[in-house]
Design a protein that fits this description.
about 200 residues, alpha+beta, five-stranded antiparallel β-sheet, 3 helices, about 35% helix, globular
Length: about 200
Amino acid sequence: MNLDAIRDKLGYQPLLLGIFGLLASGALAVVSNAAGPAIVAAEAKDLRDSLADVLPAGLADNDFLNDTVDVDRDGKTVTIYRARHGSDLKAVLFKVAERGYSGEIQVLMAVDPAGKILGVRVLKHSETPGLGDKIEAKKSDWVHAFAGKSLGEPAADKWAVKKDNGVFDQFAGATITPRAVVRAVKGGLQFFATRKQEITGQGA
């Protein structure tokens, strides 16, 4: 085969690669556009289920995802979800976080308009399996101990694990984890107390 024939064939290769690249990109775009709405819907359902799980059954009848307000907390935006029954505000729900033993622990909490905790759930963490993961509601009842608590009950200095003279149980071999959750929840209550009017949309 002579050199001219080889050069002719080589000249088509970049063109063919470009065409195949464009076709592949187009196919991916089509698949992404088709799957996009389904992914968004699934994420919304997961969030809605998580919000409902932290509230007492039957407390609210509105769609939390469509009743929100964004509030600043230390330079970061916190999305507040409002739970209502009819027009009555029954609770607000929001996420808080603290550094645990192995990483950030994300917590979802529901608070009634008076500042009392209705429920707490851990959404995400990377704590040690078998020890720190007892903060999960499906593995232990520990997180349910926050229900009914407020900034005044217990007293501020008792918002700690028992090892630190507080009222909350710790886990054998994993004290750092429950400490972090207690700090996160207490901080969430303090945030609610200082920004209550903005969070609830109600008068002072």
